[in-house]
Amino acid sequence: MNNSIPLSIDAGNGGFKLFGMDGPIELQSQVATNGGQKVLNTMGLRKSKAPLQITNASGSFYVGPYAHDHGRPVENLDVDRFNGSPEMRALFHASLTQYQRKYGKFAAPLSIIVGLPNEVLTGEGAEKNVETIKQWMRGTHTWSADGESYSAEIADVKVASQATGGLFDYLLDAEGKFIPDRKGAFSGEVGTISIGFGTVELMVVRDRTPVQRFTTGATSGVRRLLEIVNGQRLYSLGELDMQLRTGQLDVSAALPIWEREVMGVIEKQWGNAWKRFAVVLLMGGGSILLKDTLPYRFNGKAYVPDQPVIAIARGLYKLSLFQQARREK
User: Domain 5-162+313-328 in CATH: superfamily?
Assistant: First the structure.
């Protein structure tokens, strides 16, 4: 795929992140079915701007910030959504739209590497999940965004764990080459903690090989924090996520409770074994929420990348460059 454009995707439940040669975009993973209802502008009130409207073979959807204010929320967060569910296709097309609006239309087919939670990539159904994801993503995609036609040709699809993206974001530079003073860590032990919206992902790599007993995923991501806040279920998770992003949600009482749950996941899987790791990588949106406490639990071993929300997508992009350079040798 020498003539294709490399593009990485972190298909998170909270944000859909893309990273390519021009840079990143992040789209809030909020989807609502478009009922077509319209509220006329009312004197004394601001007129609300409709979210991005995606129309494809699966139907018509509002996607992105405030989508849940304009249609019926779709909040299917189980692993089946990654196998080409209507909301996942809507998010995929919306993110490709936003990327092209920011950086220009794609001039060639895309070669994609997509990062997914460990839950999708482990167990008896793992191989089937990977093949299904490749099948629905690969090929020609056509859709409209706010009435404008778009298309993209996906020439190749590779699948990796989200934690793998975080690891290679640490090890590789922007050109996909090993950072000299970090390459040695790849031969030792490196722990990765990715705290996303849906899950907390743990991975340990020893001598370039995942250590299975230290690698897992648990549904204790940021959504658990929002569920604690939303005890009376007055809001959709998407609405609460929007409030959290805009600083309008008070999580001060719930944050320590959620942090203990996150630490419980880590301690159950790692115990004190992290003390022998060369470094513990922390990333994902949840790492920002816990930035004042979590890094200090690892006695100087913790490393938080710049822009931890896009670190996984950026690391997968670096990995694609690394692999391409090896093929060309």
Answer: ATPase, nucleotide binding domain (3.30.420.40)
